[in-house]
Design a protein that fits this description.
Layout lengths: L53 E7 L4 E8 L2 E5 L5 H7 L4 E6 L5 H4 L2 H8 L2 E4 L4 H4 L21 E2 L5 E4 L2 E7 L8 E7 L4 E5 L2 E2 L2 E2 L9 H14 L5 E4 L5 E2 H7 L14
Parallel strand pairs: 3-4, 4-5, 5-6, 10-13
Antiparallel strand pairs: 1-2, 2-3, 7-8, 8-9, 9-10, 11-12, 13-14
Helix pairs in contact: 1-3
Bound molecules: zinc ion (2 copies).
The site of one zinc ion has 4 residues, from loops.
């Protein structure tokens, strides 16, 4: 039986069976059709990746915070819902949002956490050292800005070495103090290998500022020195603001990642 097969689109893998001798049009696999991905058409000749994980990005709030949703096997981790939590939830109705993580406690990264948690029932995780700061996200900050709401108390605190799992992906927590005391970086493992969420610790060509409350220049320099060692060069870095980059690019061009770097950060 052939289900939903579109002859012009190559193989559909939607339930039909064929063997290597049958020309299904995929052209790229031997010995029967993929079979390991449920329903739907391959489209591109069954050249699917080892995983179907997805990263979605939302730019939220007055200073354009990058909020990310990482989806694996229908489970979703949201990183830094800085604003517009209810709207983010509406854009994620097709997946199960199980975990919300703040890379640090600044209002522009946690202001939407409460609304997103209320809408999804997901657990909210952050580092203990920034909980107090995050609890004041709805008040005007020292920069005079305020965000949707105070962050809720975390359901669980996370610290260096913890691992957050979803679907076939997992993220290792790397403690990254400096921009704030409770900053973290999430380094992908499993099907999330090659992905890191770096918050405001590291940006394309620069690093996080340390002149706000709780900022610590020496701590940030130590964190950056550690990230140099721990994040593989091939990793894509998803930053808290602006464009993503790669560790390779930053190792080559970011002055704060050079050995002995000790200048002031920019953001
Ligand atoms: Zn920040
Ligand atoms: Zn920020």
């Amino acid at each position: 039986m052939i289900q939903g097969r579109d002859e012009d689109e190559g193989c559909c893998c939607g339930g039909h069976e064929h063997d290597a001798s049958e020309d299904c049009g995929c052209g790229s696999h031997e010995g029967g059709c993929c079979g390991d991905h449920g329903g739907g058409c391959c489209g591109g000749g069954c050249g699917h990746n080892a995983s179907d994980d997805q990263i979605r990005m939302f730019i939220v709030g007055p200073i354009e915070t990058d909020c990310y949703a990482y989806v694996s096997e229908g489970e979703c981790l949201v990183v830094d819902p800085g604003n517009s939590g209810a709207a983010i939830a509406r854009h994620l109705e097709d997946v199960r949002v199980t975990t919300i993580v703040a890379t640090h406690g600044h209002g522009d990264h946690v202001g939407g956490a409460k609304a997103l948690r209320d809408a999804t029932g997901a657990r909210f995780l952050m580092h203990e050292a920034d909980v107090e700061l995050a609890g004041r996200a709805g008040e005007a900050s020292e920069l005079g800005r305020s965000y949707d709401d105070d962050a809720p108390e975390p359901d669980q605190t996370i610290a260096d070495g913890d691992v957050i799992e979803l679907g076939t992906a997992s993220f290792r927590v790397i403690g990254a103090p400096g921009h704030t005391p409770g900053g973290i970086v999430l380094l992908g493992q499993g099907t999330a290998d090659g992905v890191a969420f770096v918050g405001d610790t590291l940006f394309k060509g620069s690093c996080g500022r340390t002149d706000l409350a709780g900022g610590d220049h020496d701590a940030l320099m130590a964190t950056l020195a550690r990230l140099r060692e721990e994040i593989p060069a091939r990793t894509t870095l998803f930053c808290g603001h602006g464009d993503s980059t790669t560790m390779m690019e930053e190792l080559e061009g970011n002055p704060w990642l050079q050995p002995g770097a000790a200048s002031d950060g920019m953001h």
